[in-house]
Write a structure and sequence with these properties.
The complex is a heterodimer. By secondary structure, chain A is an alpha+beta fold. Helices cover 25% and strands 19% of the residues of chain A. The chains are: A alpha+beta, B mainly alpha.
Chain lengths: 254, 392
């Protein structure tokens, strides 16, 4: 045996170090495999969208109430992540609908148009979680962003409060939270949907007018909904890639 | 709630109840416009060799600097988190028009304005350094960066570099203000703003306001220092003001005509606004008193032979009216753009605070501040011709 003690120690040393590294790597591979951890939420497996069925909305305002409660949104109506509009359209004057939204619909809607000619309907509004959001485009520091699973979110620890995004949103879905002086908006209840729950507004909607959908999940009912209904998005001319699909949306809705 | 709903007409989205951008954001394009305009006037002398405006060259540069130093303050005051504003430099979001403001601003301040003023004043700084003692001498020594070389060769180099910087400066001034216009013009959600004309209109109104400011300041400082006013200089500036104003007004009228003729879905909203909430600030202040009247006055001075005294008065009045008119224009863009709902179904009103952070009082202070800075600047770097210059 012509191996010196020096060679032996070197080889043994290398073996010990490398096997430890290999064991560590193996461990990491095992634990890094998310499908071994059943509850893990994988960003790239989801692409969230939303459907609203105008014909089903009864204007109860539960969604507005639940959203404020769940997400600690200030109660004043100008701070709303979601709100409900009531439309009254006179058949002779389609271009000038009468619209109101008392307190954002928080307390529901007192009767107003009983016995009057014309059509009445409710339009729930919320962030459209646009795929090419103008609000994200204009943020000077990138505090607001589109998450890989299709939700427009805000990093409140980074937001300057410059309000450019509020100006850029065509749908009026953003506001400045007076308590933090940063922008606030619908998060699609991100803290819930990443745990397999639906949003607070969908949860409480008594008629199922509001539905969360995952476009990347082939078994999600949203596919059937989009196939079976004639849906429309708000202000399609803005080309924002809105992912909030309305069934039965009247042309008078802005 | 009921207090808030006062002044609301029709239906507006919840977040449109209160205006997002108030009077401070009116000041921002107004002040940067004055900077860009004053600089462009100054560069006329340097690049295009318009000798007649030479007496205002230094005053125009210092005025531009005084206003540029104040330009970021209204933005800073308006931010919800001013302490985070440096993030715009460290982690700029490249798709944001606003993110580039910091860079455009710094470039313009440091690479153009400060350098040009320094090169132009270097000889004077060295002479003042040598002529003074104590703290004052130290101040000028630091400003001269310790170099007292004012040999003919060194001054020639100064002049060459200064000339180059002015040439770079003109597109930079265009960039500075055209860019401010782009911040508004690129908001597709707002039909009052969204227009490729916006940067061009902003630029020309900036040139107009800057020239008007220098026209007024030149007369004021001459009166204050009891120096003779050079009428050839005044006449030339007034003529340029008229030309720039005519271009500016034509562009704005083109924009208006286009909107009226196209009459798209937003038109009824905007038309209603101009006839009601914006009637005073748009029709009366901006167009009649702030544009047509000063253009008429300037034209009068061209067409009719008037005494020096009469022309001076006419120019001063036209300059002041122009400054009011351009302020009204900024107001109508910024505030006007937020008075109607993006639903086109309703309108809100702007309720200006008095003493709050974004109120009237800070705005007044911010408008006075550049003049205070200018008063200090002219003390350190006198822009007035020395006796020997006058003799020559």
């Amino acid at each position: 045996m012509d191996e010196t003690r020096r060679d032996f120690l070197l080889k043994t040393g290398k073996f010990i170090v490398l096997s430890a590294a290999a064991a560590g790597a193996w461990e990491a591979v095992v634990h890094g495999q998310p499908d071994r951890v059943p509850e893990a939420y994988r960003l790239l497996d989801h692409w969230w969208a939303f459907t609203i069925d105008i014909d089903k909305c009864i204007g109860c305002g539960n969604c507005v109430y639940a959203c404020k409660k769940e997400n600690d949104v200030p109660l004043e109506p100008q701070f709303s992540r979601t709100w409900v509009e009531r439309y009254h359209v006179n058949p002779d004057d389609m271009e000038h609908p009468e619209v109101d939204s008392p307190d954002g619909g928080y307390f529901g809607f007192p009767e107003k148009y009983a016995g009057q000619d014309g059509k009445n309907f409710f339009v729930p509004k919320m962030c459209n979680h646009c795929a090419t959001s103008p609000c994200v485009q204009v943020c000077p520091v990138g505090a607001t962003f589109e998450s890989p699973d299709g939700v427009v979110l805000v990093d409140k620890s980074y937001c300057l409060g410059c309000r450019y995004c509020v100006q850029a949103c065509p749908y009026g879905c953003r506001f400045i939270d007076p308590r933090t002086s940063t922008v606030d908006k619908c998060t699609l209840c991100y803290h819930r949907i990443t745990k397999g729950l639906t949003t607070a507004c969908c949860e409480v909607c008594p008629t199922g007018a509001r539905q969360l959908g995952d476009l990347k999940n082939p078994n999600d009912p949203i596919h059937a909904f989009l196939r079976d209904h004639k849906v429309q998005i708000l202000k399609p001319q803005m080309a924002t890639g809105a992912k909030c699909y309305y069934n039965g949306l009247d042309g008078s809705v802005r | 709630m009921h207090g808030l709903m006062q002044g609301v007409q029709g239906y507006i989205y919840p977040d449109e109840l209160e205006l997002q951008w108030g009077v401070l954001i009116v000041l921002y394009p107004y002040i940067t416009g004055l900077v860009a305009g004053a600089f462009i006037l100054a560069s006329l002398e340097r690049v295009f060799k318009v000798e007649a405006v030479k007496p205002t060259y230094r005053l125009a540069l210092l005025t531009a600097l005084a206003f540029l130093l104040v330009a970021p303050l209204p933005l800073q005051l308006h931010l919800g988190h001013p302490e985070r504003s440096l993030e715009m430099y460290f982690t700029p979001h490249t798709t944001s028009a606003m993110a580039m403001f910091g860079f455009v601003y710094l470039w313009y301040l440091m690479a153009v304005l400060v350098l040009e003023i320094w090169l132009d004043y270097r000889k004077d700084i060295v002479l003042m350094w040598k002529a003074s003692t104590g703290l004052k001498a130290w101040m000028y020594k630091i400003m001269a960066l310790g170099s007292d070389d004012i040999s003919e060769r060194a001054l020639l180099t100064d002049d060459k570099v200064g000339h180059f910087i002015t040439i770079v400066g003109i597109p930079s001034a265009f960039l500075l203000h055209g860019y401010v216009g782009f911040i508004f013009g690129s908001v597709k959600a707002n039909p009052w703003w969204s227009s490729p004309m916006m940067p061009v209109v902003f630029l020309f109104s900036a040139i107009v306001s800057g020239i008007a400011l220098v026209l007024v300041m030149y007369q004021f400082t001459a009166w204050y220092k009891r120096l003779p006013v050079r009428m050839d200089c005044l006449d030339t500036i007034a003529r340029y003001l008229m030309y720039a104003f005519i271009i500016d007004f034509s562009l704005e009228m083109l924009d208006l005509l286009h909107r009226i003729y196209e009459a798209d879905e937003s038109f009824k909203s905007l038309d209603f606004m101009v006839h009601t909430r914006l009637y005073f600030s748009q029709i009366i202040l901006q167009i009649i008193l702030g544009t047509l009247l000063p253009i008429g006055m300037l034209a009068l001075a061209q067409l009719v032979k008037l005494t020096d005294k009469a022309r001076q008065g006419l120019y001063a009045a036209a300059g002041l009216l122009t400054l009011v008119g351009i302020f009204a224009m900024r107001w109508n863009v910024v505030i006007g753009g937020q008075l109607f709902s993006k639903s086109f179904l309703g309108y809100t009103t702007y309720k200006m605070d008095l003493v709050s952070r974004e109120g009237l009082l800070p705005s007044i202070v911010l408008m006075i501040l550049p003049f205070v800075i200018l008063a200090v600047l002219v003390r350190i770097l006198p822009p007035w011709p020395s006796a020997e210059d006058e003799a020559a």
